Amino acid sequence: MDKLKIGITCYPVAGGSGIVATELGIKLAERGHKVHFIAYALPYRLDRYQPNLFYHEVETISYQLFKYPPYTLTLAARIAEVSREWDLDIMHVHYAIPHATAAFLARQLMTDKCRPKIITTLHGTDITLVGADKSFYDITRFSIQASDGVTAVSEYLAEETKEEFKIKNNIEVIPNFIDTARFNTNNSGCDRKRFAPDNEKILCHISNFRPVKRAMDVIEIFERVIQTVPAKLLLIGEGPDTMLVRRAVKKKALGDKVIFLGSHDKVEDLLPLVDLFLNPSEEESFGLAALEALACGVPVIGSAGTGLVEVVDHGVDGYLYPVADTWSMANAAISLLTGENDLQLFKDRAAKKAKEKFSADKTVAHYERYYHQVAEADCEG
Ligand code: GMT
Fold first, then answer.
1. Does the beta carbon of 17 sit less than 6 angstroms from any atom of ligand 1?
2. The domain containing residue 253 runs over which residues?
């Protein structure tokens, strides 16, 4: 397969979309493609020299007249500059706004209106929350339709997008992947006893604590579980609802059972110690944190009716119930935690499924095929 010159723009943060975009770029570079990250900061995990990988910083300009720095414009100018200089075949943007909008604008600045081809990957919140906001609706729809290729991380998200935005483009579903060299059942040496000295069960929730994650449901589920099963709860990540959760933990006198670990770069060191992962989100287009848990052999209890149904198999490696049904989620947790055989079976199936169904090789090869398909398609520009 011919090697491509690919630009990637993403939010260079530790969120799911940033992780997926960065890991994808690293894997593509390992396969011989030239990969150019264009972002306002060095993407997460791109902190060392790697052949075929380049980073182009987008500077934000502050000027007295600007109340808000015009990031989309500086990004567009930088994409155009890098595309010209390196003759990019593909510009792959993660998130429709503002990244696909900036890529579209960048191409208007180029003499050749057909290169690079723009591929937009939808990750979820751009569609389900931000894009559905009236003020962003038209620009999101436009940016998706102006892309030469569109991918979504789940069937659920692809359907939501088509329905919400009345999109005619074909949306290629390319599920997220997991690096099982990092996320697996091998214990890193971290001692379970550090968190559970009396052999309690360990439950865990990892998120950015935005309201959409329903972290308060995690506390409700845990409160019910400990009425039957001695357990500890690890909370990893931070965000707008952290204070709310802290207050609830204090009010319910759960302080000795709930451990706040804050943001953590290496969750793969902790996940193998965990017995159950709680993911009761209101919306989840995919649920990368849930996949990370499965890969480490941790069954997931979460919400049905979201993209989680494509990651977690109800009754096989976890349980999914309607959003806010904390009663059923708690009961499922109790039944798993009190049935040793079942729990081990769920753990084994979780790790096996993550490895077989969500391997990096499979997903990266899918992106490569899609890049070629889009790059070779006729241009209407
Ligand atoms: O969930 C978030 O708040 C972060 C957001 C992101 O930008 O990383 O996550 C979205 O993209 C992830 C990677 O594709 C998906 O695994 C998450 O499910 C999705 N979040 C939502 O849909 C709420």
1. yes
2. 192-357
Over the Cα atoms of the chain, what is R_g? 22
Q: How many domains does the chain have?
A: 2
User: Is ligand 1 within 6 A of the CB of residue 208?
Assistant: yes
Cut 0.85: pTM above it: yes
Q: Whose CA is nearest to atom 7 of ligand 1?
A: 17
C-beta of 241 in contact with ligand 1 (< 6 A): no
Question: Using alpha carbons only, what angle is made at residue 160 by residues 20 and 117, rounded to the nearest 5 degrees?
Answer: 55
Residues 23, 76, single domain; the answer is yes
pLDDT tens figures, 169-224: 899 999 999 999 999 999 777 789 999 999 999 999 999 999 999 999 999 999 99
**Is 380 domain-assigned?**
no
| Same-domain pairing of 137 and 207 | no
Q: How far is the CA of 207 from the centre of ligand 1 (A)?
A: 10
The string of pLDDT tens digits covering residues 28-59 is 999 999 999 999 998 877 877 889 999 999 98
